[in-house]
Amino acid sequence: MWKTILRRILIMIPEVIILSLLVFLLAKAMPGDPFTGSINPKADPAQLHHLMKMNGLYDPWYQQYWNWVVHLFHGDLGNSYQYQEPVTRLIGSRAVNTLWLAVFTTILTYCFALPMGMYAAKHEGKLPDSIIRIYTYVTYCIPFFVILIIGVWIFGYVLGWFPTTGSISATAGPGFSSAASRLYHILLPGILGALFGTVNVVQYLRSEVIDAKRSDYVRTARSKGVPSKDIYRHHIFRNSLLPIAAFAGYSITGLLNGSLFTETVFSYPGMGLLFINSISYRDYTVITALVLIYGILNLLGTLLSDIILSIVDPRIRIE
Amino acid sequence: MEESLNRHSKISAADLERLSKEAKGEATPSSARIVWNEFKADKPAMVALVIIVAFILFVMIAALFIDTPKMMETDIMNYNAAPGTNGFILGADTGGRPIFQQLIVGARNSIGIAMGLTVISSTFGICWGLISGYFNGLIDWGMQRVYDFMMMLPMTMMIIVLVTIIKNYNAITLTLIFSVFYWEGTSRLIRSRTLSESEKDYVAAAKTSGTGNFKIIFSEIMPNISSLLIVDTTLSFAENIGVETGLSYLGFGLPMHTPSLGTLIANANDPNNITQYWWTWLPAALLIIILCLSISYVGQVVRRSADASQRQGAAD
Questions:
Q1: Which residue(s) pair with B98 in the sheet?
Q2: Across chain B, how many H-helices and E-strands are there?
Q3: In A, which residues are within 8 Å of B296 by CB distance?
Q4: The listed CATH number (3.40.630.30, 1.10.10.10, 1.10.3720.10, 3.40.50.12500) that belongs to domain A90-267
């Protein structure tokens, strides 16, 4: 078991190194430099050159890469040219927003998906099962950003139930009031994400429960006269819970990748929106840091899910 | 051949003909035939199929009659014209450009890119999966590490970075960029199926009789998993429509002067448009939903026909 996990982690190291190199070179290959846009036309070209030299932008690429890596290990990702503040602090404040939204959406997804999966499995092959199957399938097929836009239009603009921009209202006071305002801002994207992201959990839980229904321990419990309700609650559901929990890792990875869209539609100040803004300002330091962070989070999310799944399900243990 | 058969066996020519006819009748029908029977049995699926084919043909042909540069010219007089006014069937956007014509050209572009992306990424993914699954050992291990690495990449971000690097990109370069990142799903599916397939007797038989590896892969294993290939390709076509439109929506897909369903939806980014001028973006959004749903519905029917136990069509 530990060998498997250790091997997985060892394999991650070269992957992260290659990713960092790739990201760095891609950012370098982007056109324009971060200063030209921010300096007025009358600025002295010599001063511009000095600025570029000071920031090491004339060094050979491997030199720049090495400097970047060394700084990286000191927890220094450089300064954002656009915001004029350290990238770590900038991303830190945005990451909180993105992670809040991702965690909230995941919790809501489970709230919707668990009862649906259980109910579908209980009534396997009957009408509720087909309705749930069609529901998960339809919600899976529609591109999510279209749903977000239609959702923000109906519930945000037409009905006016939810805020359409930002992560907190300007008038929110400290303490409870600010927390409530934050929650209010992630409510609509969270609900939409949960309603339209149930397919994996529902299908996995459904097949798990259907397998368990036919297993010997359930038959034994039944023959002993345990009521059906208790069998589902204490025997089947409890056994299926851990593998289902493992899906949280995959789910958060998926949500992170979707955050570009969610945050653009809701103008929600998270990492995804920061990325889109940084691209238009050619803010390399922020772009490289964000792609690297997303890549590493992807890795960790999958790793977490794989480890939990391989503990509970020997069938998929990696040899 | 037939003559020599007759000389050595007691079967007469008439018998041989009858026997081979019987054998033909008993043989499993081809995958295309099974899929067709399934569609004949499922009327809604037939309707969906006809709608998709008719829509794609309509969009492809109608777009030929639309002068795109002229359509994309700004016309201040018709700024945000409402649907039905001044001959604008679905109104006009902030630049006075007709929405209906943009929808046709946009749908053509989006479907075209999705098709190109499906062909390229599926071909690549299928080959990758077949080779990786067939050659166990070091080759498979190496290919799996590449796969792991690709899975780690934040795809949307990487595509956006690439799009900003490449100057003067067009529909073809865009399709190629997308293809780099969207073959993994197919390859994993094909690999796991190939793994179990290469343990079967016919592969072992082909190996012992000295058939070359690539001949076994492409003319023995591939035809045997053809139904899976058809299913996967149809379903990824529906997904790929979302890929291009999503990136165009963010502003990193097709360039501004080339309409796509995604750039039309991007009209909704303007608070004025989303609140007052619904016709600038809603038709494109609904069109995407309908397209994706009907294509994947067709895909579901194809998947059902690939699984003998779920078929509804008569097995003739």
A1: B92
A2: 17, 0
A3: 137, 141
A4: 1.10.3720.10
Identify the helix (H) or strand (E) that includes residue B57: helix B43-64
Residue of A nearest to B290 (CA): A142
Which of B153, B288, B296 is closest, CB to CB, to A146?
A: B288
Give the start-to-end residue ranges of the domains of chain A: 90-267
Residues of chain B with pLDDT under 50: 1-2, 315-316
Q: Higher-confidence residue: B114 or A247? A: B114
What integer pLDDT is reported at residue B315 of this predicted model? 47
Q: Do residue A299 and residue B242 have CB atoms under 8 angstroms apart? A: no
pTM summary value: 0.82
d(CA B166, CA B181): 16
Nearest neighbour of A141 by CB, restricted to B145, B268, B292: B292
Question: Is the ipTM beyond the 0.95 threshold?
Answer: no
Positive/negative CA dihedral, A85, A88, A91, A92: negative
Largest CA distance in chain A: 89
CA distances from B11 to B24, B25, B90 (A): 18, 19, 72
The per-residue pLDDT for B121 is 93
What is the predicted pLDDT for the residue at A305?
81
The structural domains of chain B, ordered by start, are 43-310 (1.10.3720.10)
Would the CA dihedral through B211, B214, B215, B221 be positive or negative? positive
Q: Which residues of A50-66 are buried (b: 16+ CB within 10 A; e: fewer)?
A: eeeeebeeeeeeeebbe
Long-range Cβ contacts of A75-79 (<8 Å, 24+ apart): A77/A285, A77/A289, A78/A285, A78/A289, A79/A285
Task: Select the residue from B140, B159, B161, B288 to test the A interface by mutation, using most A Cβ atoms within 10 A.
Answer: B161
Is B293 an interface residue toward A (CB < 8 Å)? Answer: yes
Give the closest of B249, B274, B296 to A141, CB-based. Answer: B296
| B150 part of contact set with chain A, CB < 8 Å | no
> Does the distance separating the beta carbons of A290 and B238 come in below 8 Å?
no
| Rounded average pLDDT over A43-71 | 75
